């Protein structure tokens, strides 16, 4: 079997399996033999196979008339939610009408095949993906969840201070992102904001006993007023909505960590607000029909025009949030068109009273100022017994014109719909014709017809070039095999000396083919693999005359031109029809009811686990804002589209809020009636709320004052500690001087408190709290050197072997040694210039070398670090002078003399010649670089020891600090990809270990695994999301998918409960850093120790991580 045949067979098997899966899903039949029989009978036609199975097995119950007619009853005095799953865009399968069943089957098959064409994903693969989706609905009632704090406040109140004119966020108090998303969307409707802030409870309620609604709604209204007032005038970056949330959660009768559905919560919220304002309206308008501002703001009316078994009816109904089905539609208008028409609508326009078909149309008679659409992205999978999220893409516009759905435009809309239907039918025919041109052929593989003709033209014009038998023989022989070589030699000998050896002349002109008698005994073992001797190098006609070639080329060229012209004409016609359909409603008469997109509520995750946030348009700044719990940031339409349309990382819009663009009062600011000035901040609040916000701001001011006092006290204590340390240092220095006088201390021009001693030696910089101990060690070292000096004069070269000497000191002593001749001939100043030139040249060469990561000269020499990062010349000069002025150079006369020259040069530097703040900044950056290196080194060592828990914090902080360095320059830090790789790998290892502990089912192991996730992995996920690096994003998806895979598995109720509490935190896509560990305390390393350990760990690194990424 050839490779091509093998591929075709695999494709055929996969296609057959896809057909079986589609049949199983559509008909519900699980008998594989019966499904295969249906495919055989129908010869692979899905529609016929479904008909075969349904006729054989289906038994459909009688239609319940009351069920269908339920939404068309006139006497219903409560608002009816329209477009729900029960009555919107639903084909009635409860009757015995075979047409409905066949249409449903055809629709299902069409959607399935469309999904495969668009995504390349089979139904079987989609089913596997759905199994991984989150659903624990069957255990909801029995689970007892514990309250978990999601946000951890920063102890520094200045981190929680509101920036000027920045919107206020809402704290997530335990899976309450659903609350934040809805409340922020409503709060930014300024008319709604004013209604809530200026609401006052009915006066008579204080005297009458409260019923259940009053007992619940009025306290909630007061908490909502308090919350809104803080969102208006608080000095805090975000506020706590706990009081309002607790009242809502009690009403939901669910455990307090239950993550609520956005539409369910919004329904409940509007119902409560409607009831609260209704009580107030009834009190204000005694004897008159009261007006409820919530109803006027959010509720509209539509006319249901329908036919039920030939009898026409009309009914006016009210609606609030309008539900729309998402599955099977590409944009919002398609969803609305489908929601406005139900059943067989042809009978609506006919006069036949005896028609048995039923259907209805919806026409809006009155639209609310705030028009809200619920996008139904969840459906219940009967086979799996769980809800599933629909991730398909759905586009929606920023400006929506509702004219085509209005009752006053009913007739013109019907005409346009009929025209669109006719155009789409014609479009289908054109697309089918175009498909015949673009997918030509009768086999499984098809190609564009124009390309087929072009290939035929290329074939006819090809010239046959035959290959020699020698080339064939060489290619068929085993490479390097002795058998082939022996046969080749034998063949050459038998052909005689007149025949050139085949292996030596393959490029010569082909000789006449040898006779059969010559060829058979030689090449018989290779008969099966050998090509015919006269086979062309490439496909070409064997026999064709010039006349035949000319006629054939002319025909093919003419046919190809005709095909290309036909293809262009078809494509042009299709484009024109698409354009006509797009512009069908673009005339001014159908653009009189504009609705602008105000807010988009987004959900990321699975059916019962995920995270909500909102995009809200700011008309004053003319930009989109992203409200993600405590984080409020500027966004863009492009980011909104990416997160809201669907099909990207499981994030999609769940609710759309449009506002009437002709009613600007909805978003207009309030103005003072006397001064005409726009009200802002506390001026927008009534007196009681103004006092409430001032009190809260006073508490926050007091908290900041206490923090400032505490920090000032700490700073004073640190200052005193430094003074004590300095005094101790002076005592130790005095003791060292009296015990053994230092060479540098005998010079009156350079006392101990001179500039050389104030500046640090950064390659061996001690910590402030340990300064006296290091100074004492330096003194003892100097004393021992002086004693050794008296016994034996040691050359600078001999000191190079001392382990105590830093790389800086080694280089300086070596450069002084090289200036020995100059010193003896010309004196110390000339030797100083010679030595400093030698040292700088050496360091410059190091800075220009391209070394391995383990041999980083920047760690050994601060000058190398400065050169590579283009530090100013004055910074380099002073740093180099400081090194030559080091007190440890006083161990012999030559070094001591050069040290004196360096100190004299330092004294000559005027204060205005060098910016000491800039000098200190460069040296601080170098200290930060060393600290980052230590974090990285320890993290990598622990990672190699598989101590992932301990390694994580070192790798996390090394990555964060390194990025801060790299912002200033490419050579300020280390390779961020390398650190990011091991940070990522460490998190993946911890995630895998924690998942393994969870799988064990043992209580201690489960708790330890979830503790690792909650305390280490989950807090680090925002760090991987914030920079939008593809590999980091993939790692987060890997970790999330690992835990989401448990949702389709059976487990103990206690494990299900823990998983339910944990998943929302894992799936939270916020990039806000909520709580984090303090950086680990670093040990002190000498330069030699640091260089050695860092080089060792870098040399041992594996270049390819465990996952191969």
Automatic annotation (TrEMBL):
The gene is usp25. It comes from the Eukaryota. It is found in: Cytoplasm; Nucleus. The keyword Cell cycle does not apply. The keyword Repeat applies. InterPro entries: Papain-like_cys_pep_sf (IPR038765), Peptidase_C19 (IPR050164), Peptidase_C19_UCH (IPR001394), UBA-like_sf (IPR009060), UBA_8 (IPR054109), UIM_dom (IPR003903), USP (IPR028889), USP25/28_UIM (IPR054108). The muscle-specific isoform (USP25m) may have a role in the regulation of muscular differentiation and function. GO terms for molecular function: cysteine-type deubiquitinase activity. Homotetramer, inhibited form. Homodimer, active form. Interacts with ACTA1 (via its C-terminus); the interaction occurs for all isoforms but is strongest for isoform USP25m in muscle differentiating cells. Interacts (isoform USP25m only) with MYBPC1; the interaction prevents proteasomal degradation of MYBPC1. Interacts (isoform USP25m only) with FLNC (via filament repeats 17-18, 20-21 and 24). Interacts with GAPDH. Interacts with SUMO3; the interaction sumoylates efficiently USP25. Interacts with SUMO2; the interaction sumoylates efficiently USP25. Residues 501-510 have a biased composition (Low complexity). This is Ubiquitin carboxyl-terminal hydrolase 25. It comes from Salvelinus namaycush (Lake trout). Residues 491-519, 734-802 are annotated as: Disordered. Residues 771-783 have a biased composition (Basic and acidic residues). It is an enzyme of class 3 (hydrolase). Residues 168-661 form the USP domain.
